[in-house]
């Protein structure tokens, strides 16, 4: 479906029981909401799943103005408000994890828990992201696709149908959508978490050279979260390690869902 968020129309998918707790899934730079396809049906058995394509990704508009991580977080809140969702858990991959962290720092009272996958507290290469944004605006995205994709999955996985499908998501991402997000990444300033009340699970591929295991460990410590390293996985492991990720997420989400219920009922 399509939902208006301020001046933009965003592509949204909502599935699961209306009575179930809500889980918002945020995809990575250069992909779209279908990144979560391998595990979304399993998650939807226990949760109401809300997915959306980021600006300029999938079927969502990109808009005319530049934007920041704060604006991408506002898009998420606009969609949750549209559906009358007051509290929710959130899981984000790469830039999706940065959006999730902004939500945790700005509206912790609305988050039940947070899963951060192959992301970091802030990019350590802001100047590089600015260069990437300029290059893509001037020359398009196609000449960078192989370089980008090579960091997403392990060499053993690259020629499989799921990996090729993920690569097609990148091909179909608008140049301005990718460049706009790259520019947003270049504007993020390193800062310590403002709030540690939201329970956090951190997952990271052991071979991730973008958001490294060391960066994941730093983030887990800063946010008082649990760290799990995924063996033989790279930067975007959702398809390659879907079974392990689903297991870790289901256990973590259930634990914190039960904790919330106990706190609310006193039982």
Write structural notes for this entry:
The protein has an 8-stranded mixed β-sheet with strand order 1-2-4-3-5-6-7-8, with helices on both faces. 42% of the residues lie in helices and 17% in strands. Strand 7, helix 8 (213-222) and strand 8 (226-230) form a beta-alpha-beta unit. It is of the alpha/beta class. The chain has a single domain (2-265), classed as Rossmann fold, CATH 3.40.50. Residues 21-241 form the AB hydrolase-1 domain. InterPro entries: AB_hydrolase_1, AB_hydrolase_fold, AB_hydrolase_sf.
Beta-strand portion reads: 15-25%
**Average pLDDT across residues?**
92
Query: What is the overall shape?
Result: globular
Q: CATH superfamily name?
A: Alpha/Beta hydrolase fold, catalytic domain
In terms of structural class, how would the helical and strand content be classed? alpha/beta
Which percent bin holds the helix content? 40-55%
Per DSSP E runs of 2 or more residues, the count of β-strands stands at 8
Low-confidence stretches: 261-267
- Biggest sheet architecture: 8 strands, mixed
Rg result: 17 Å
- Which fold name is given in CATH as the topology? Rossmann fold
Which second-level CATH architecture applies?
A: 3-Layer(aba) Sandwich
CATH first level: Alpha Beta
- How many helices? The count is 9
Distance between the termini: 39 Å
């Amino acid at each position: 479906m399509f939902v208006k968020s301020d001046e933009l129309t965003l592509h949204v998918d909502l599935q699961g029981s209306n009575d179930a707790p809500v889980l918002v899934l945020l995809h990575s730079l250069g992909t779209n909401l279908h990144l979560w396809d391998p595990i979304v049906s399993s998650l939807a058995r226990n949760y109401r799943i809300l997915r959306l394509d980021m600006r300029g990704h999938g079927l969502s508009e990109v808009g005319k103005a530049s934007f920041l991580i704060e604006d991408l977080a506002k898009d998420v809140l606009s969609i949750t408000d549209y559906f009358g969702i007051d509290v929710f858990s959130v899981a984000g991959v790469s830039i999706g994890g940065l959006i999730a962290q902004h939500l945790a720092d700005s509206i912790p009272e609305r988050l039940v828990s947070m899963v951060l996958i192959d992301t970091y507290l802030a990019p350590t290469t802001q100047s590089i992201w600015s260069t990437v944004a300029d290059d893509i605006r001037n020359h398009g995205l196609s000449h960078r696709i192989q370089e980008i994709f090579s960091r997403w999955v392990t060499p053993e996985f690259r020629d499989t149908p799921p990996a090729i499908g993920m690569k097609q998501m990148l091909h179909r991402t608008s140049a301005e959508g990718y460049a706009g997000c790259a520019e947003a990444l270049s504007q993020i300033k390193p800062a310590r978490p403002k709030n540690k009340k939201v329970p956090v699970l951190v997952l990271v591929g052991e071979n991730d050279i973008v958001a490294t295991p060391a960066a994941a460990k730093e983030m887990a410590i800063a946010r008082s979260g649990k760290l799990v390293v995924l063996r033989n996985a790279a930067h975007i492991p959702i398809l390659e390690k879907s079974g392990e990720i689903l297991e870790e997420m289901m256990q973590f989400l259930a634990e914190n869902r039960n904790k919330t219920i106990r706190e609310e009922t006193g039982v």
